[in-house]
Amino acid sequence: MVNWKRIVCYIFVLAVLLVLTVFPTSAGDVENKVDGLLKTLEEGNPRQREIATSEIFCLNKKEGLGAKRQEVISALRRNLKDENHIVRQGAATTLHEVDPSSKEVIPVFIEALQEKTTYYDLYAAVILKDFGSEANDAVPALIGLLKDNWRGKKLNWAITLEKIGTPEALAAVKPFRRKMEIQETFSKPFRIVSESVVISSLGTLGFIGLYLWSRHRRKKGGKIICWPLLIPMVFWGFCIYVAFWNRTHIGLIIPVYEAEFYLSIVLFAMTLAGIIPWLVNVLRWRKKCTAPGALAS
Fold it and tell me: Domains in the chain, please, with CATH?
């Protein structure tokens, strides 16, 4: 028989992880956390303040800021004028997450694009597209970045230019439009899987179930190979981790479209690498089982 106890254990572990991830913290705990982070924003060194802005970003994404929201917005606005460019850019990223309508962040993100010295240029590109034509001052910097030698970022610049939508921006994007359409189409599978704990968990459990069923049949004498199923099982399990991480961390929130494109190909290839050999063996086994004179296994 299929080892249902093991399957139930896997489901239980995934359910516990899901509860731990989405279960809200009490309002009092949130306010205490925010108070500590606000103090760091006012008194900490530049590195500590940058970390504090990232923690506020994650806290707002996961649990919200409650009654402290306006106080946080005021503190972040003050940090937009900090003398340290990393603090300014970190504050702008978090302010947009807390208050998406805040337009004070636009000059800071244009600065991030012009500097090309921090990873905030990616955040800047992705966030500026939300402002559409209001971010038209960023067009010259984005067009300059299209000449960047690193291919992985070019699609980010092109997508932002398309969203800004001025004639100058659209003319610069024209050579990239076909590639943008192709990569958007092929990136969707990985994005759907990596953004949903439920979908990635169900996919993983599906491969676990097939693996256990195949092992059971093999022990009964059926010549079914089951080890290829470990390949997609591991990768879909990794997608669970990515989905959990995306819920609470800043690092993978940005859609780096080039990376998504290649990860989609890997997801597809690894799934086929497990399913095809397994399916061929199952079909052969069934054919032998149903052949005239064959004994039922």
Answer: 25-179 (1.25.10.10), 189-289 (no CATH)
C-alpha dist (Å) from residue 197 to 15, 242, 246: 10, 9, 10
Give exposure, 137-175, as e/b (b: 16+ Cβ within 10 Å). Answer: ebbebbbebbeeeeeebbbbbbbbbbbbeeeebeebbee
- Contact indicator for 49, 87 with CB cutoff of 8 Å: yes
User: What's the average pLDDT block by block, 10 residues per block, for the chain (297 residues)?
Assistant: 56 57 58 86 86 85 80 91 88 89 89 75 83 90 77 76 89 83 77 80 89 85 84 86 64 54 82 90 80 56
CB of 53 closer than 8 Å to CB of 94: yes
Exposed/middle/buried for residue 70 (C-beta within 10 Å: 0-12, 13-18, 19+): exposed
